[in-house]
């Protein structure tokens, strides 16, 4: 028996605000699809214009690196195929880095509240939108 939670955050390349509208909707679908495929449970998910917050329960065989790469790899490939404007202005969709923190049962609610309030935080003014 296990209860492993992971808070994963990854950013678009150059923190470009490209994750909106149809791109954000499709990104959510792909993340949910990958989680279902792996048998992982999404506890919280928030797609902001330039980064993604994900709180996911996963199996003990999956490392933080594996979990992050499963989501980043699939979503980058599919989104760049389906939305050509992402290819034309960005060399890759995602930054090569990510943040991951294990989440215990005591702090799970705190992480979920943090992710749920991301839209309340102001965006940086120097970020350039991609048309």
UniProtKB/TrEMBL annotation:
SMART domains: Y1_Tnp. Residues 1-118 form the Transposase IS200-like domain. GO terms for molecular function: DNA binding; transposase activity. GO terms for biological process: DNA transposition. Coiled coil: none annotated. It holds the Pfam family Y1_Tnp. SUPFAM superfamilies: Transposase IS200-like (SSF143422). NCBIfam families: transpos_IS200. This is IS200/IS605 family transposase. It comes from Streptomyces cupreus. The gene is tnpA.
